Amino acid sequence: MSAVRTRLVRATPSAVREAAALLRAGALVAFPTETVYGLGARAFDAAAARRVYRAKGRPCDNPLIVHLADPSDLPQVARRITPLARRLAAAFWPGPLTLVLEKTARVPAAVTGGRRTVAVRCPAHPAARALIRALGEPVAAPSANRSGRPSPTTAAHVRRDLGGRVPLILDGGPCRRGLESAIVDARGIRPVLLRPGTLTPETIARAAGVPVAAPGRGAPPAPGTRHRHYAPSCRVVLAPPAEVRRGALPGARTRGAGLVHRSRWPGRRPAFARRVAGGPAAYARALFAALREAEGAGVRVLFVETVPDRGVGRAVMDRLRRAAAR
Q: If DSSP codes are grouped into helix, strand and coil, which group holds residue 159?
C-alpha cells in the first residue's frame, strides 16, 4: 500500500472531529480505548474494512470488532439480541466485554470475516465514544498494530507499527486495562468464553446468572485467537515463578537476553530487566509495553515470568502463550 503522512495528535474535541471526517471519507484512524488502541474504519463500509486488513497485514478471515458509542446502538449491528446479551451489556457496557451475536444485513462480510456473526462492544474510553458519536455510526476496529505484534497500549506504539499506513493517530494516553476485551458468545442461554480478558469468567458468570461455558466445536471464530499473536521480534520464553526466584533460567544472564518479572531475581540481573510490581492486573497493564521495550533494547531472547492461570491471570497467560508460540 502507498505511504501516507501520519500525524499523532492529542485527542482534543477538534482532533476528534477531524478524525470523524477522515472516517466518513473512507480513511482509517487509530484511537484509544481502555483496553488497547484500535485501528478504526466505518463499520458499514466494506472497502474501508478491507483497508484495515491491508494496513495491518491481517488475515481476512480474522473478524473485526464493531465499536458502539452507546449500548442502545446494539440493534444497528446485531439481531436476535438474547436476554443473556442484554444482561451482560447492562452489567459491563461501556467496558472491556465483546459480545458475539447474529449480525444485521448492514454489517458487511468484510467486517465479520465472512461469518453471519458480529463481535461488538461499547468501549469505556471517552475519546473512543466521542469519535463514534462524531461519526454518527459504529466503527470497526481491531488493535492498531501490525498483525501478530504486541498490541499497542500507547499512541507511540501505534506510530511505530503503522506510521505511513494511517493518516491520523488520536493520543489518549496509556490504556488503563492493557489487554484486549474478553469475548463472549451470547447467542444462547449460557455465556461461552471465546477469549479471556481482564473481565474474569467469575465476574461474567455472576452477571449472567449462569456459569460460563468453554467453546465447543462449531464455536464462531473470535478476533485475535486464530493466528499467532502478541509476539515481539525477539523470542519469548515462559519462566515459572519458582525458577525466577532461584535465578534458575539457563541463558538469562547471557548477552542478548532479557527478563520481565514480578518475583525477586537473585544476584546480577540481565542487561534488560523490567520488574512489574503488583498483582496480575498490574502485570496485564504493563505486559505489552514491556515486550515492546525489550524489542527496542535489542533483546534476542526474553524470559517472561508467568502468573497463576486464574482470574485476570488467565488472560495474561493466554497472551503469553501466543507470544511464545513458535
A: helix
In angstroms, the CA 170 to CA 66 distance is: 18
Amino acid at 299: V
Please give the grid coordinates belonging to residue 229: 499473536
Please say whether the beta carbons of 281 and 312 come within 8 A: yes
Dmax (CA) for the chain in angstroms is: 61
Asked if 316 and 207 touch (Cβ cutoff 8 Å), the reply is: no
Residue 42 burial (CB < 10 Å; 0-12/13-18/19+)? buried
| Cα end-to-end span (Å), the chain | 28
Contact present, 170 and 81 (Cβ < 8 Å): no
* Cβ neighbours of 258 (radius 10 Å): 27
Dump the DSSP string for 86-155. HHHHHHH-SSSEEEEEEEPTTS-HHHHTT-SEEEEE----HHHHHHHHHHTS-EE--BSS-TTSPPPSSH
What's the rounded mean pLDDT across residues 46-72? Answer: 95
**Do 179 and 101 fall into the same domain?**
yes
- Which residues constitute the domain of residue 129? 7-208
Q: Give the chain's domain count.
A: 2
Residue 223 has pLDDT above 80, yes or no: no
Instruction: Tell me, yes or no, whether 296 and 195 share the same domain.
Output: no
Q: Is residue 218 part of a domain?
A: no
Judge if pTM exceeds 0.90: yes
Q: Degrees (nearest 5) of the Cα angle 300, 305, 308? A: 150
Are 192 and 208 spatial neighbours (Cβ–Cβ below 8 Å)? no
How many angstroms separate the Cα of 12 from the Cα of each of 157, 160, 213, 243, 274?
19, 22, 41, 47, 33
pLDDT band at residue 127, thresholds of 50, 70 and 90?
very high
